[in-house]
Amino acid sequence: MRLLFWMTSVLTICTLNATQPRPNYLLIMVDDLGIGDVGCYGNYTIRTPNIDRLAKEGVTFTQHLTASPLCTPSRSAFLTGRYPVRSGMASMSRVGVFIFSASSGGLPNNEITFATRLKKRGYSTGLIGKWHLGLNCENSSDHCHHPVNYGFDYFYGMPMTNLRDCIPGHGSVFLAGAARFIKTLIQIGCITLVTATLLNYSGIIKINWKVVSYILIFFGFLFGLVFLFFSNFRYLNCFLMRNHQIIQQPFKHENLTQRMTKESVDFILRNKYKPFLLFVSFAQVHTALYTEQRFRGKSKHGLYGDAIEEVDWSVGTILNELDKNFLQNNTLVYFTSDNGGHVEEISSSGEVHGGWNGIYKGGKATSWEGGIRVPGLVRWSGVIEAGKVIDETTSQMDIFPTIVKLSGSTLPHDRIIDGYDLTPLMKGKSVTSEHEFLFHYCNAYLNAVRWNPRNSKSIWKAFYFTPNFQPKGSNGCFDSHVCFCYGDFVTHHDPLLLFDLSKDPEEKNPLTPQTQMYYTVLRTIQQAAQNHTESLQVIDNQLSWSNIIWKPWLQACCSSWFDLCYCDNDKEFGGD
Q: Domains along the chain?
């Protein structure tokens, strides 16, 4: 009788588990949003009621960290739950992201994303917005790094990122630097030419002026091509796709957020009767900034504040669609930014176009807290306690194992997953983060290590090197637009620069070697770093110079080159 009762109970539980609907997932990522830019993290001057609503109705993570302070590697880590260096998505050179759509690098095809895992579980999966993880490999239409190859059924958005060069009148990320470089070459060339002329007339050397003229013509032609290329950058790199088709080249920015919002709402409506995963990846608030006319001049922080308030409107519109269709109790909503605010961003007119990182030092491209501490909000109505605040260390890499496990799937066993399931923390079944150590990278260089001892309230953070802020005493690298990771751009520390973030979250007062526990802490951190480094495997670097340079045969173009790769087929939104 007892055996029959036990078997009946087990059968009932299994039946309930089998019929219990799997949660949907709405993942929202803003580009370059500072942790101090939204109300629920302390901002009182930018209106973000819809983002703040997620905090009121869900969980706020106060120590939520990105795996990299730059777009491309951080998004790689977010999708895979793995440090970017494990998949070759961390650069060894100055450039740490993909710049050209006609580059051959990209997220390796053997990497497993949460979309891949959920698609196998029967989920409909969509990506609306920015991708920035590669496009082609061998020709202009092979789309080997396209989102559909990483588990997304539907893609509407930009393969690359939004840059100043994408929108006329916003200046250029490239031309100023190219002009300085060419100016330097011209100066060197003039000096060399004058010196050679004097030596020629003095009889010391004999110059073949015909050869010199050919050289000058060649370099003049080369410089002209460089300026022609970057002057037309937006036609080659700033385009919009629907699945495999380019529908707008270059993309029109005026109502881009509205179009992304409608696409997100339509995806929800198409899939409301079956499990879905929707990743909304905003192009805002990465420069060049833009907003629809009705949002212009509405905030207290110029175009940057206007753009955030437009994003907040979009978030509210998408959340309202969930509520209208009674999906809020069966949808886990996650909100974050890919990295900290870009403090160096100043418009050509002198207006601040970069984000605010609150009390935290530094910003995008640095491993100071301002570069890696980002918003982390999770709402799952009826499942997660509303208004809960979690101060434990968490990572964007945790989203992969969290949603994979909740969907009923399993984690891959053939690779290291660096994230941990957040469900025990969110449901109150655990009060301690699984992350005892986190490793902060600047490109492919191990920059700092974070240690959260199990038996202590201290949070130790040790830097191997730090960026040289310019001008001296500033909070950014204004001379170079972003901070770089090696050479004369950084200062190495021996012994390591150590902070206790529990007492000094602003990273103002490094501990001295005379401090009690100083060397004990460093020994533990260095041992953890060694263990971590030994776990890394040699892999092709997707951000090597050979993989990121522009290759004409990979250039995606919706029309002929003679038409400057122009088309506008987004007919639903006023295209040709």
A: 22-162+238-553 (3.40.720.10)
